[in-house]
Amino acid sequence: MRELIKNDQLVTIVPQDFKNTNKGKVCEVSNDGFRMELQYKPEGLLVNHICDFYSFTDNGYLYFESYIQALEGNVISIANPVKHRFLQRRKFTRIKFLEDLVLTCGDISHNVRTLDLSAGGMKIRTNDNIDIEKEYNVTIKLSDEQEVKCKYQLIRVEKNDAGYYVISGRFTNLSNIDKMTLVQFCMKKDMETINKKG
User: CA 156 → CA 11, 31, 111, distances in Å?
Assistant: First the structure.
């Protein structure tokens, strides 16, 4: 773990309940794992429960699963993960995602169908000729319990032979928790797809 995690490195911890996402600074690295001081009170973080961890490193965006061994005030001890992976450095994992959504801007609304999704944005298709200059509100429903609300900014619009528009756009004003939610959702779906193929 020493080559991946260093003192003063910032690490985000995401438990099963995303609302309790926290982050902190690594204060000690050992052969068994590492200790970090949390920025916020460790509400909803439980000893021996598996959590997801994310951190920017020199090699890219590090992701691993592990569990909290001990909790003393705002300092937690994390066990060495069994395995880790680096997410693409510049690009978030993109997955196929087919859902019907509505883009709204004031009184204007457009029904769209998503084609793919990442933590950075999504590709959609629609019969409507959408104004590329406007920024739209959108709610992305990931499951019955989970949804992400953000703004969607159009980047590229293409009209295809079938007569509908294919639009690529990016998310703006995403909170850190919503971004982590999307990173985790897309990564887990991607891994499920890889495991099915395997």
Answer: 34, 49, 18
SS3 content of the chain, % helix, strand, coil (to 5): 15, 50, 35
Note the pLDDT of residue 93: 81
Q: Taken in order 76, 52, 100, 162, is the CA torsion positive or negative?
A: positive
Residues 6+ apart with CB under 8 A from 48: 67, 68, 69
- Summarize pLDDT for 156-197 with one digit per residue, the tens: 999 988 889 999 999 998 887 888 788 888 878 887 776 676
Phi and psi at residue 177, in whole multiples of 5°? -65, -40
Q: What is the pTM for the complete model shown?
A: 0.61
Please tell me the number of Cα atoms within 13 Å of 185 on its side-chain side.
Answer: 24
List C-alpha distances in Å: 71 to 16, 28, 64, 84, 187.
Answer: 17, 14, 19, 23, 28
